Amino acid sequence: MTHLNSLDVELAQELEDFTEDDLDVLFTPKECRTLQPSLPEEGVELDPHVRDCVQTYIREWLIVNRKNQGSSEICGFKKTGSRRDFHKTLQKQTFESESLESREPSTQARPRHLNVLCDVSGKVPLTACGFDLRSLQPDQRLENLLQQVSAEDFEKQNEEARRTNRHAELFALYPSVDEEDAVEIRPVPECPKEHLGNRILVKVLTLKFEIEIEPLFASIALYDVKERKKISENFHCDLNSDQFKGFLRAHTPSVAPSSQAKSAVFSVTYPSSDIYLVVKIEKVLQQGEIGDCAEPYMVIKEGDGGKSKEKIEKLKLQAESFCQRLGKYRMPFAWAPISLTSFFNVSTLEREVTDVESMVGRSSVGERRTLSQSRRLSERALSLEENGVGSNYKTTTMTVNSFFKQEGDRLSDEDLFKFLADYKRSSSLQRRVKSIPGLLRLEISSAPEIINCSLTPEMLPVKPFPENRTRPHKEILEFPIREVYVPHTVYRNLLYVYPQRLNFANKLASARNITIKIQFMCGEDASNAMPVIFGKSNGPEFLQEVYTAITYHNKSPDFYEEVKIKLPAKLTVNHHLLFTFYHISCQQKQGASVESLLGYSWLPILLNERLQTGSYCLPVALEKLPPNYSMHSAEKVPLQNPPIKWAEGHKGVFNIEVQAVSSVHTQDNHLEKFFTLCHSLESQVTFPIRVLDQKISETSLEHELKLSLICLNSSRLEPLVLFLHLVLDKLFQLSVQPMVIAGQTANFSQFAFESVVAIANSLHNSKDLAKDQHGRNCLLASYVHYVFRLPEPPRDPPKSGGAATLPDPRYHTYGRTSAAAVSSKLLQARVMSSSNPDLAGTHCAADEEVKNIMSSKNADRNCNRMSYYCSGNNDVPGSTATPRPASKKHFHEELALQMVVSTGMVRETVFKYAWFFFELLVKSMAQYVHNMDKRDNFRRTRFSDRFKDDITTIVNVVTSETAALLVKPQKENEQAEKINISLAFFLYDLLSLMDRGFVFNLIKHYCNQLSAKLTNLPTLISMRLEFLRILCSHEHYLNLNLFFMNADTAPASPCPSISSQNSSSCSSFQDQKIASMFDLTPEYRQQHFLTGLLFTELVAALDAEGEGISKVQRKAVSAIHSLLSSHDLDPRCVKPEVKVKIAALYLPLVGIILDALPQLYDFTAADARSGKNRANGSDEDQEGISAINQNMALAIAGNNFTSKTSGTMLSSLPYKQYNMLSADTTRNLMICFLWIMKNADQSLIKKWIADLPSMQLNRILDLLFICVSCFEYKGKQSSDKVSTQVLQKSRDVKARLEEALLRGEGARGEMMRRCRAPGNDRFPGLSENLRWRKEQTHWRQANEKQDKTKAELDQEALISGNLATEANLIILDMQENIIQATSALDCKDSLLGGVLRVLVNSLSCDQSTTYLTHCFATLRALIAKFGDLLFEEEVEQCADLCQRVLHHCSSSMDVTRSQACATLYLLMRFSFGATSNFARVKMQVTMSLASLVGKAPDFNEEYLRRSLRTILAYAEEDIAMQATPFPTQVEELLCNLNSILYDTVKMREFQEDPEMLMDLMYRIAKSYQTSPDLRLTWLQNMAEKHTKKKCYTEAAMCLVHAAALVAEYLSMLEDHSYLPVGSVSFQNISSNVLEESAVSDDTLSPDEDGVCSGRYFTESGLVGLLEHAAELFSTGGLYETVNEVYKLVIPILEAHRDFRKLTSTHDKLQKAFDSIISKGHKRMFGTYFRVGFYGSKFGDLDEQEFVYKEPAITKLPEISHRLEGFYGQCFGEEFVEVIKDSAPVDKTKLDPNKAYIQITFVEPYFDEYEMKDRVTYFEKNFNLRRFMYTTPFTLEGRPRGELQEQYRRNTVLTTMHAFPYVKTRISVIQKEEVHHSPRFVRGLQDQTMTSLHLCLMFSLF
Fold first, then answer.
1. What is the pTM (predicted TM-score) of this model?
2. Among 683, 766, 1370, 1470, whose CB has the most other CB atoms within 10 angstroms?
3. Residue 496 CA to its chain's centroid (Å)
4. pLDDT value, residue 1251
5. So what's the pLDDT on residue 1786?
6. Cβ contact 1296:1668 at 8 Å
């Protein structure tokens, strides 16, 4: 550290210098649901096993925590991309697109005005000249715009302005990356807790019958009909009135509050549609059958009055007497089923059945039917919402209006399931079983998480349990239909007894009304009955005895009773269940007892010291039981004297089932044996000991325990999981605890370890158990995280036969078996023997450690990039802190040793599930360090050398295993990935525990070993990337990389740890040093180890080829992105000086990104493909977008005859074919680049740029160009727009034109050449096939907005708006750096074009006003600094710039408009200053406006007029220019622009009338006859409009006219024989083209400045226009014309020897000719109609006639309907009328207030001589000027009459131009009429009739 300056030391400490331990061992109290934890009864000495169980359930969690990792702020940021309320700190960015959207509805809603057509007629005197700009109020001007300021000062002001209000954390604005790659996120296992299924709350509201005469008792339980299983315990409920409760007061000594519950919480783990809630009603026993007792309820009604009332009173008195006498006995009465199908959403169940199998059941697949996903169950309670169970289920009140009467002989559960099955199937049950009318109302809802005042099944109050206790809710225990694999976490010890059947059929007649008294006895005396039986409703909480319900006069009764018993924690042989059988006398007899004893039976609770459960058939003793009866089972009682008298001769007559729900009794033989043997070792026992039915002596104990360990994994999975925590604790205790058995030391380590391995294997292999994203079994993960702790030494060392006493109070263990015994295995297993690199002998701080490793002082200096990992000597012997006996062994050492020496299947399993053993190692090591003396704090001496050797061996073996798996099939690959991630996490954890030099050495060996064994590059890179990504997520990653040792601030004096080459202080190395900082040099990799490795992998991924490499590239970029994001959002890295240092660490990434430039996804091309309509929507915009697409690149590369070039051509760069990065990957890489540029030392960046060659600078500009499009703001509504967009078949005309036009001309084409050499088409055809896919939208979340609230959408838009602004400002900063750094260089002219290109691209995107303000300021600085270059060299860029600025002049945002006006004025001013005439800028501005007018849908002429007025104000206020002609020229220009705007207004009004719109556009184009550039622009506008309406022929004609115009001007400039001679050469294509002839006197000379300077007035421009026209002709089906077009193109291509183009041209010609042959007459050209307009409402159109060309097969009603509908909207439907005939219109007969339209179908007309030349079908449909229609008439004026009166009129119309033309309607200029007499008509009719007769005759034959 002595070499670091004070700032560096400060920074290192600020990032929490890692000399202290990173891991904290925390004891966290276990969360307890109940007020008091569930514990055994007090005052009882517990068995060791019960004690251990209880201890496990109540002890605290032991959690190893990282001190600095995962602070909520960072995690929140990383996961969501924004912290809560973070958006409130952001400034709202204003985007014009959104302000326009908010205004759109109002503009669209306006009705169309009636004067639409009057404007164009010229009758309304609104003319361009008549509109005075000066009448407008100008916008506010920018201050100081016209003041003289030096360029440097201007730049400085701009920079200061840009630096204010910037957002510090770039990544806070960036959406979080998908966590698919986030392998470093190690999920925290869910805390073990009690299992709760889907919980439903059932409240019993009402229970009443027609008559109320006695108390009734309800019990409710859930039954699954399909599984034929009762799935819950009973809930007893008493809704009796106080009067009826009084009847029973003698029999209820006390009433516990817990027994008064009227609501219960049921739990269902496996919901299904077969679950029924069954309510059983009992009443107090009385004389008579159930039917007799129920009859009054069925026949008497309360409201009948009179006699009924008397009967009821009589019955009530009778009931009262029965209650007093027989109040403690019950009889069955009625029952009602309630289906829960509607509650458990069946459709959801069906759908998810397949997923749930994994939950908890192990039954066969065919039987499985579960509801949720596998992970949920071991993760805990399945909430109703998650499973679709009751998710939309509100609280529902269910009403039952009738009950089924209980049948005395059908009371068993089997009978109940039959009833339920019938009930579900049909209503037949209602017919067969008598119903009792009544009312039961239940309220059922999904239970809330927190319920006030509820009790557990053990009657423990659950938190919160308020003091003012209301009636409690009871939680009802579930009996799941299948296994639930959730380890026990609470003490529960319940026994359920179900008496089922008694057969006393052969007994004496006295046994008729039979009840059974059930007691739980702890001895044989009557007083030994224990109060452990849970009471029912409205009585004591616990009872000593309970009686079953009685069936009247039934000798073989069925029982349905459920007796719930709280088992004592300590059970002895004396505990048993006692059943006493009685006959109950219902009739009151004088002096007779109510109860008559019938017999006894019993069931011992323990058998061989194990709890007895299951079904039993017990004999019944008819007399008093003999002493000590309970020691034996009833079936096997030894012979007594006198002998016991048995019913049925000792046969079983009493069927009973006993079930336990216990977290202490395992109910599994293997587990029982294992626990018993373990406890015999731990405590003083007397041998032999009994285990089940086996006796084990002390000598056989070791063998039996080993056998038990081996068999442990054979136990059933459910009990193994239930007792998993205790089993593993015991196994780990055995692995380290020395055992002395019969005087011999026993070692169970290996057996215990193998047993752990086998259990881990079972749990991982079970399909029923959940795994996390890394494939880790959730049960084991939560065990390691929460439960595992170092095995404790025995509490009470036994004097003999047990473990030896351990004198050391700390947790440690005894050693490994003798070294000799293990050495042979070690030799086989190990790969290397020593690991610790040579470090300085003295103790040093951890930073120093790492620095020493890095500098490799004792290493060979001629090393490769990893050579600083050299094997050094071992640590100095004796340097360990506390000398310990060699025989002692700690748990981590024992575990590592067992992992190393394991063999065969065990070894294979250990490494397959290495994560578990790694985490055990780490946690045990952390506890070990925590328990150490604090002075023993040097990492190098914490762990023994042998342990380090074992760790090295383990890492090497795991690496080998991983490599071996990777060459196997895919399934094994997944396994290898999981092992690889486990190893990475292990080393990650070791960095916090061990000597970091040692760990770095392991990392080096890992990388080398993997490289040596793997040949598949993508797999290798992917594995190492995931490995490194995890390591780099370490909280001390920056310090581990010595980030503070960057030499950026003082390159002349590097710290000594940098290699000697860099340590030179000569200034000559200065520049080289700075340049090398941006490259991944060996020195860098040596100094910054982990980052160097990561960058190396990134480079390898970018360079690699092969299948699946794109996924690897995504992983690599995602890893870097994740790292930078974590730094940016780390509270420790807030200070700018820290971020500067961090950015310096990542500088080589800049070089890597620049090298990867050809691979970056092209957002500009993607935007063009999507048909995205940007705010300006202009031609140049589309060209700018599509310029980088691949077809364009090929076109550029393919054209050799460029007439001029600009900038440095980099096509010579040999770029190989790379895999292209996806949009998301590119975006993530771009944000990393911008972050570095934002946070790096700006002076360093400038120095670097100043030294870069122009080729590299151009690359940076290309990168910035892509960045601009990459981070364009997509707006709030982007997802909706995206989802509705469909890529049109025909792309935007201009984008397609560019493909043909810009063959290497222009800066964008030049950029393409620089980025990609000829032939390097990035995935040919990609651009055609791409659609708007989800991953190509702004970011993935953008298209997932359906479920988001408006507030969330607004918040997202706010953040993304700030991101777009910040990203663009960083790009602007970079451009300023480039401008400033290169001002003095010779290459500034070429760089200026690049900078302008980026600026223009940014102006074409949707930008915030904040950014635009800064961007325009930079532009003005650029104009002021490089004005001369801009206007002379960068003509094309200047044109683009004009258009962008002009577009922003029409902005609705005042701020943007004022900035744009100032910039445009400055552009004119400096242009004038450079040439004293700004004709070129004038022309470009005028063309730009014409282009905007033609296309931009959101163009606002009002704002633009105001901007023009503002520019005029600038010109008037500019004192310095008043003496020049400049102000006058500006005014002329503005007046011209204003007139164009006037045309725009009209065009807007005719948007709905396509013909009128085209007429207007044609008129505008015509008006620019003297301005070729503008005329060309308007012709292109017309072409685009036609293409959108699919009028491809007309669009092609527009382009032919444009080409003719270009040809005219080219022929003036150059006299080449291969060029067309003006428009004359185009006559074969269309006779209309002669319009473009430039022979008139007023035509300007092309030599004038600014005229014909556009990019189209070149030979390549001409070819491009013609080629595109040919393509459109082909689309329109005019293949013959394609030939004529190419006749003009081919000579030009031949002259330039462009054989590639000639090849494709002839190929297209062949296709055209093939189409003529194949399609011929099948083609359909246009259909023509004459349309006449009559009426003053039409204005100039009045009495005008046109021929309309409509698509083929257009019927007369179609065009009639269209025109009538349109004009009806204009004038009102009542004012528009279509004239039905074609006769001449007499205007005097028309209503002057109406508009009349006459439509007639016309056909092309040819004279006979013409027909000789028009042979083909095409010729008869092309170049048409004459059309004819026929009208019948008579001399009387009627249209039709008798044949001799009938005349016919043929009308021939001649149009002004020939069809097809640049318009779809042409006015009629001549009309000829020919009349035919009746004789001619008759002759024609005769001919027609003859033809018909002939046809008829032929048809007869």
1. 0.72
2. 1370
3. 48
4. 84
5. 83
6. yes
Number of helical (H) and strand (E) elements in the chain, helices listed first: 63, 39
Rounded distance between C-alpha atoms, residue 945 and residue 1850, angstroms? 115
Total count of residues recorded for the chain: 1901
Q: What gap in Å lies between CA 797 and CA 777, rounded to an integer?
A: 36
* Secondary structure letter of residue 1213 according to DSSP: S
Q: What angle do CA 1865, 1868, 1872 make, to 5 degrees?
A: 140
Asked whether 813 and 791 are in contact (CB, 8 A), the reply is yes
Q: Which of these, 1178, 1169, 1306, 1168, lies nearest to 1584 by C-alpha position? A: 1178
Contact 950, 893 (CB under 8 A): yes
Cα–Cα distances in Å, from 808 out to 103, 732, 892, 942?
A: 82, 19, 17, 18
Helix segments in 1336-1478, DSSP class H: 1350-1382, 1388-1404, 1409-1432, 1435-1449, 1454-1475
Query: DSSP secondary-structure letter at 34?
Result: B
Q: Are 729 and 57 in contact (CB under 8 A)?
A: no
Quick one: which of 292, 303, 79 has its CA closest to 179? 79
Q: Helix 151-163 vs helix 1409-1432: angle between axes, to the nearest 10 degrees?
A: 160
Q: Is 1302 helix (H, G, I), strand (E, B) or coil?
A: coil
**What is the reported pLDDT for 1152?**
92
What are the tokens at 1099?
């480079």
Confidence at residue 184, expressed as pLDDT on a 0 to 100 scale: 76
Cα distance between residue 934 and residue 932, in whole Å: 6
Residue 187 neighbours by CB under 8 Å, 6+ apart: 772, 773, 774
Q: Tell me what pLDDT residue 1128 has.
A: 86
Residues 6 or more apart in contact with residue 577 via CB below 8 angstroms: 497, 518, 519, 520, 521, 602, 603, 605, 658
Q: 3-state secondary structure string, 670-706?
A: HHHHHHHHHHHHHCCCCCCEEECCEEECHHHHHHHHH
Cα 1289 → chain centroid: 31
CA distances to 203, 238, 315, 439, 486 from 206, rounded to whole Å, are 9, 10, 22, 7, 37
Q: Which two tokens stand for residue 28?
A: 């966290």
Residues in the chain where the model's pLDDT stays below 50 = 1-7, 16-19, 70-82, 104-130, 346-392, 795-887, 935, 1047-1069, 1169-1216, 1278-1346, 1639-1644, 1646-1650, 1888, 1890, 1892, 1894-1901
753 burial (CB, 10 Å; 0-12 / 13-18 / 19+) is buried
DSSP letter (8 states) at residue 190? P
Residue 442's pLDDT is: 94
Contacting residues for 554 by C-beta, under 8 A, at least 6 apart: 408, 409, 512, 513, 514
Residue whose token pair is 């045309």:
1543
Can the peptide bond before residue 688 be classed as cis, meaning omega within 30 degrees of 0?
Answer: yes
Alpha carbons 524 and 1441: distance in angstroms, whole number: 106
Pair 1035, 1132: CB distance under 8 Å: no
The tokens 């009992």 sit on which residue? 282
Query: CA 922, CA 916: separation in Å to the nearest integer?
Result: 10
Which structure tokens are listed for 314? 């009589």
Omega before 48 within 30 of 0, i.e. cis = no
565 burial level (CB within 10 Å; 0-12, 13-18, 19+): buried
Q: Residue for token digits 């890394």?
A: 774
pLDDT tens, position by position, 814-836: 333 333 333 333 333 333 333 33
Residue among 1448, 1446, 1383 at smallest CA distance from 1411: 1448
What pLDDT was estimated at residue 399?
Answer: 92
> 545-583, pLDDT tens digit by residue?
999 999 988 889 999 999 999 999 999 999 999 999 999
Q: Is 930 left (phi over 0), alpha (psi -120 to 50) or beta?
A: alpha
Q: With H, G, I as helix, E, B as strand and everything else as coil, classify residue 580.
A: strand
SS3 content of the chain, % helix, strand, coil (to 5): 50, 15, 40
Are the beta carbons of 1497 and 1173 closer than 8 angstroms?
Answer: yes
CB 1786 within 8 A of CB 1724: no
